[in-house]
Amino acid sequence: MSKPPSGTPAPVDEIHWPSLIAAVAAISAVGIAIGLGLPLLSIIMEKRGIPSTLIGLNSAMAGLASMAAAPFTTKFAHRHGVAPTMLLAIVFAAASALGFYYITDFWLWFPLRVVFHGAITVLFILSEFWINATAPPNRRGFVLGIYGTVLSLGFASGPLLFSILGSEGILPFAVGAGVILLAAIPIFLARDESPVLDEKPDRHFMRYVFLVPTATAAVFIFGAVESGGLSLFPIFGTRAGFTESQAALLLTVMGVGNFIFQIPIGMLSDRVKDRRTLLSAMTLIGLIGALFLPMLVESWIMMALVLLFWGGCVSGLYTVGLSHLGSRLQGADLAAANAAFVFSYAVGTVAGPQAIGAAMDVTGNDGFAWAIAGFFGLYVALSVVRIVLKPKRP
């Protein structure tokens, strides 16, 4: 475990609220921007007659941009500072958000996506590093539960804003850019309290992906199941006999579980001796829940009940995985590991829909559940092996 670099605040016993508010503001902007931007851009491309394949290809640039930006974020923050880098990312994200309105050439939307989601990724990484570096060790899970709850609210608020604003004119783009810019205020006010990266990470970026595998694997599974589930559950639900509105409501129930369990799971992670045990338990619940999905299609109420708790377990992988990361590393290593964490999440968001969609094509509608169970099963195997055979390693 590396020592904290000079200038990095020493761990404290109380929550430092200016730092928490700055990090939460950044992640709120991320959640709202993604929640508003993804359906907005897809609807506009559909109205312009862009083929679905090209719409999907353009949307996939989000994950690819995140994967490309993650390795360079820590180096840039080391050179220019955490808060200045976040403020610069806010400017690029807001400018590119408006750029989608003013630039109508579809092919130019590809580099715009790279800029927009690359900047959003920088905010993602550095806000998580900031909150992890300054959270009290004995309350890290609780603080990250607040962080995860606000992120969930941001994701939910984006589609709500879209439903109110629609897709016509500059207003939805201006609101999106404005929300992003508002995040700059608390970050600027707390700029002197941001963690200082006086040291460069002492490992190659990809080594951080495997340095704390229980954390990076957890967020990979989270990204795969979340993105694949949100994308393909409506298809699974309607093929199983539910109406579109019933399937949509089931997704809402899962989102409620995602929201209400973040803080309790985070607080529980502060009390367990080894967070890897909690991660294993949640993935086991996720595995069992996925296997039961095909058996629950006869009862909407039972499906909703299972999805409520299942959604909480899935989202808890992110919160507890991030908390485990913060408990193992400090300073520049923590910043680089946070970048690897987001990189792993981005890989999951690309792999999940592809694997789940392919499973549904090959094995039928139940392939949705089998593929998700497969993701959870791989993680259960990994976590059990590491706990049993290598209990003292991160």
Automatic annotation (TrEMBL):
Q: Which UniProt keywords apply?
A: Cell membrane, Membrane, Transmembrane, Transmembrane helix, Transport
- Bilayer disposition of the protein: Multi-pass membrane protein
Does the keyword Cell wall biogenesis/degradation belong to this entry? Answer: no
Q: Which residues cross the membrane?
A: 20-44, 82-103, 109-130, 142-164, 170-189, 210-235, 247-265, 277-294, 300-322, 334-356, 368-389
Q: Return the Pfam families for the record.
A: MFS_1
Q: Say if the entry is tagged with keyword Magnesium.
A: no
Extract the InterPro entries matched here: MFS, MFS_dom, MFS_trans_sf, MFS_YcaD-like
**UniProt feature coiled coil, ranges:** none
Where in or outside the cell is it found? Answer: Cell membrane
Q: Which Gene3D superfamilies match?
A: MFS general substrate transporter like domains (1.20.1250.20)
Per the record, the domain of life is Bacteria
Domain Major facilitator superfamily (MFS) profile, chain residue ranges per copy: 19-394
- UniProt-recorded name of the protein: MFS transporter
- Organism (species): Sinorhizobium numidicum
